[in-house]
């Protein structure tokens, strides 16, 4: 069969049909792209609605610190210049803030970039990477993209079963991904069980502790991944400015890891993987911890508000330490998701996470939460 052949299409006339998919790397051929939350503009176009609220992507309802806007303003005159490829100022700020060596810091174009760097640097076909069922969809994607094998370990009460995950490690395992708290379930692992897990993991298996929601946790409530770095040199702590800092649009995340791991990650990253405005914005955001504290307080109040409201409707939630909740509907979530869209409320279906009877809702402002609860009541 020829690689390309002309095909008649009723609308477009003759078009070429070619088997380009077969040219893709084996892991890429079977990849299905990440499904993001529906953008507000798209729903506006589709349904002609206005006054839409989006509680679908765990974004910060307070926006970001006003200091960030000033910082971005001051960078606008330099758009023609390449950013500092080493991100020195931000790395220094992070190292100072967390009291860790600068040589442990990697910057990413979002923490998704960090996850991808780990995959590209440390995984090859034949290798295995372990993660939990109902965990972040990006883990299987980065593993599959490089032709490695993802091992999904059955969850325990919707969260990570660290004992089973340790048992799933074989000679082929190179990386383990743990989201703490986990997305989409909001579940968490405690200090003691994480410590026991890290003790059981061979030193040549890397453990990524994805703490994208770490800032939403009250200090002392959950283990701080950075505290493990000195005892377990195979730990990579990944964090982001997308969630509590409210900079999702700018794409900026970071990792702390042993300097030799950091060195390897630095070899595979793009020379200018983080843009100049994001670098400036992140420095300003980090300096405004009052904003983070306000975000945390709003989230804690909203978590109570939505939990109480959902229970008043006779439903329940999975207890969460993120800025989102999984609502157990006890019936298929997709029709409810669609009905909520028609009310102008965008939440997140989690059927693709193996949770067809749930919807994930991001904690919003008090008014947004009330609007979600009223819409949910109306559609049930
Ligand atoms: C949101 C999220 C991220 C962060 O993504 P960015 O690329 O930093 O925007 C990472 N891990 C998990 C589990 C998340 O939910």
Description of the structure:
This protein has 13 helices and 15 strands. The radius of gyration is 22 Å and the shape is globular. Helix 3 (66-73) packs antiparallel against helix 10 (276-287), helix 4 (88-98) packs parallel to helix 10 (276-287) and helix 5 (111-122) crosses helix 9. With 380 residues, it is of the alpha/beta class. The model has no long low-confidence stretch (mean pLDDT 95). Strand 1 and strand 2 form a beta hairpin. The protein has two domains: 37-62 and 291-379, Aspartate Aminotransferase, domain 1, CATH 3.90.1150; 66-287, Aspartate Aminotransferase, domain 2, CATH 3.40.640. The structure holds pyridoxal-5'-phosphate. Pyridoxal-5'-phosphate (PLP) binds next to helix 5. Residues 58, 110-112, 136, 179, 183, 210, 212, 240, 242-243, 248, 253 line the site of pyridoxal-5'-phosphate.
């Amino acid at each position: 069969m020829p690689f390309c052949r002309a095909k008649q299409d009723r609308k477009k006339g003759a078009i070429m049909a070619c088997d380009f998919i077969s040219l893709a790397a084996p892991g890429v051929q079977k990849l299905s792209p990440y499904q993001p939350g529906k953008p507000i503009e798209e729903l506006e176009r589709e349904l002609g609605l206005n006054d839409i609220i989006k509680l679908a992507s765990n974004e910060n309802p307070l926006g970001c610190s006003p200091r960030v806007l000033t910082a971005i303003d001051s960078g606008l005159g330099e758009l023609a210049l390449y950013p500092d490829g080493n991100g020195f100022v931000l790395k220094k700020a992070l190292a100072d803030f967390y009291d860790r060596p600068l040589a442990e810091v990697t910057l990413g174009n979002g923490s998704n970039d960090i996850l991808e760097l780990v995959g590209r640097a440390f995984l090859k076909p034949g290798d295995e990477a372990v993660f939990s069922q109902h965990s972040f969809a990006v883990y299987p994607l980065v593993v599959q993209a490089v032709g490695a094998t993802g091992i999904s370990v059955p969850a325990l009460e919707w969260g990570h079963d660290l004992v089973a995950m340790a048992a799933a490690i074989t000679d082929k395992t190179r990386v383990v991904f743990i989201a703490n708290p986990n997305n989409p379930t909001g579940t968490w692992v405690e200090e003691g069980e994480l410590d026991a897990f890290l003790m059981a993991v061979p030193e040549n298996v890397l453990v990524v502790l994805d703490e994208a929601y770490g800032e939403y946790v009250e200090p002392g409530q959950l283990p701080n991944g950075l505290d493990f770095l000195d005892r377990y040199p195979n730990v990579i702590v990944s964090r982001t400015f997308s969630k509590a800092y409210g900079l999702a649009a700018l794409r900026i995340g970071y990792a702390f890891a042993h300097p030799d791991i950091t060195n390897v990650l630095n070899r595979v990253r793009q020379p200018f993987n983080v843009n100049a405005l994001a670098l400036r914005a992140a420095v300003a955001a980090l300096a405004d911890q009052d904003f983070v504290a306000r975000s945390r307080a709003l989230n804690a109040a909203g978590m109570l508000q939505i939990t109480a409201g959902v229970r008043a409707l006779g439903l329940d939630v999975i207890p969460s330490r993120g800025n989102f909740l999984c609502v157990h509907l006890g019936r298929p979530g997709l029709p409810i998701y669609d009905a909520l869209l028609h009310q102008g409320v965008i939440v997140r279906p989690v059927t693709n996470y193996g949770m067809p009877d749930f919807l994930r809702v991001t904690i919003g402002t008090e008014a947004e939460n009330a609007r979600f609860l009223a819409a949910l009541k109306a559609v049930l």
